[in-house]
Design goal:
- By secondary structure, the chain is mainly alpha-helical.
- Among the domains are: 58-134; 142-191.
- The chain contains 6 helices and no strands.
- The N and C termini lie far apart (141 Å).
Length: 191
């Protein structure tokens, strides 16, 4: 055989089988009775005997019936409690979801307010400088009307800072307290 000749599979070019090959299928010795040589695993059968009393004890039967009805009532109460708990959990989850939405909205409002405060800060500083430059010469008011005018001006234009200092009091109460305090200072400074 040369390299150019085609090789057909399953044939060696001879009618006889090759040395290492014999018909192994003929030599395999299968068992004749497979049940004898390959037995199935043994099966175990279990039997249960129920003890049944021929005569029934009426006292025991009454106690068993009472226990059974008590168990049924407790199971019903338990299922009602579980249902209430599920409703409460669902309501709680709904409220938590609502609060999360409100927290996001609140954060947006706070960011907006902070932004507006930052925009307003230079204007308040400029207003304070203008107000402070005008009042440098006059530290003490000459009359109660002038003091009232100054206090009302401060309350109107610097109310955010003053209101933050005295948050629990309403602005009108603060104005009256501030006016009476300044009047007393004026009275004490003149004497």
């Amino acid at each position: 055989m040369g390299l150019s000749e085609p090789i057909t599979f399953g044939s060696h070019g001879m009618d006889e089988p090759a040395k290492g090959e014999k018909n192994k299928a003929a030599e395999v010795n299968f068992p004749k009775d497979a049940v004898d040589e390959w037995p199935a695993p043994k099966q175990i059968h279990s039997f249960y005997f129920v003890k049944y009393r021929l005569h029934e004890d009426q006292k025991l039967k009454v106690k068993l019936d009472q226990a059974d009805t008590g168990l049924q009532k407790k199971n019903q109460a338990r299922s009602q409690l579980i249902e209430k708990l599920r409703k409460l959990k669902a309501d709680r989850a709904q409220k938590i979801g609502f609060l999360k939405g409100l927290n996001k909205e609140n954060k947006q409002y706070r960011d907006l307010i902070d932004e507006k405060k930052k925009e307003r800060e230079p204007l308040q500083q400029a207003l304070g400088q203008l107000h402070g430059g005008r009042d440098t010469g006059s530290g003490i008011c000459s009359s109660e009307e002038e003091l009232n005018h100054r206090v009302s001006f401060d309350v109107l234009y610097f109310s955010s800072a003053i209101y933050m200092l005295l948050f629990p009091y309403p602005p009108t109460c603060f104005l009256l307290c501030l006016q009476s305090f300044a009047f007393h200072v004026l009275v004490f400074s003149e004497t």
